């Protein structure tokens, strides 16, 4: 198994699983992705990976995240604003989907990050885990977050539903 993973000049990727930033080395060239799907735990290590992928994917328009089980999540963790400019957040990212959402604090922090930093975000989709019991409370909290995009629409769904209800 390779010790380092070098990601460079990617145009289309079906699936990527990266355990931590210690295994990730990004080339100097931008990653040419317009859509990215990540399965992750919402903790500090995985958020560093996601932030690096966002930073080096300036054309990214669609981000689909699958929130993995919460075992081992760091307690009292917060998503920090990026130190450097992330081009896709400023001018390209239009859609973020978080699936298997359970309403945990770390997931809510992740949504707060995108609402605060994604300037042209058009759609934020939250697909609840089938057993999520905090859905209404978490939905109300997320709707109150400040956002930089004034056109963002919130879409909520349960995994087994075939339709979404939306809030603007």
Automatic annotation (TrEMBL):
InterPro entries cross-referenced by the UniProt entry: FBD, FBL13/AtMIF1-like
UniProt domain FBD: residue ranges: 87-154
PANTHER family per the UniProt record, alphabetical: F-BOX/RNI SUPERFAMILY PROTEIN-RELATED, SUPERFAMILY PROTEIN, PUTATIVE-RELATED
Designated name of the protein: FBD domain-containing protein
The species this protein was found in: Capsicum annuum (Capsicum pepper)
């Amino acid at each position: 198994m390779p010790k380092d993973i070098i990601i460079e000049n990617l145009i289309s990727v079906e699936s990527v699983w990266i355990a931590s930033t210690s295994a990730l080395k990004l080339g100097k060239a931008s990653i040419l992705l317009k859509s990215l799907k990540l399965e992750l735990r919402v903790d500090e290590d995985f958020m560093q990976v996601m932030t690096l992928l966002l930073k080096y994917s300036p054309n990214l328009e669609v981000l689909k995240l699958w929130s993995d089980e919460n075992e081992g999540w760091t307690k009292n963790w917060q998503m920090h604003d990026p130190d450097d400019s992330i081009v896709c957040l400023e001018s390209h990212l239009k859609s973020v989907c978080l699936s298997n959402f359970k309403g945990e604090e770390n997931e809510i922090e992740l949504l707060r990050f995108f609402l605060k930093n994604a300037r042209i975000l058009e759609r934020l989709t939250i697909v609840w885990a089938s057993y999520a019991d905090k859905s209404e409370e978490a939905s109300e909290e997320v709707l109150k977050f400040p956002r930089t995009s004034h056109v963002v629409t919130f879409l909520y769904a349960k995994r087994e539903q075939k339709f979404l209800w939306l809030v603007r």
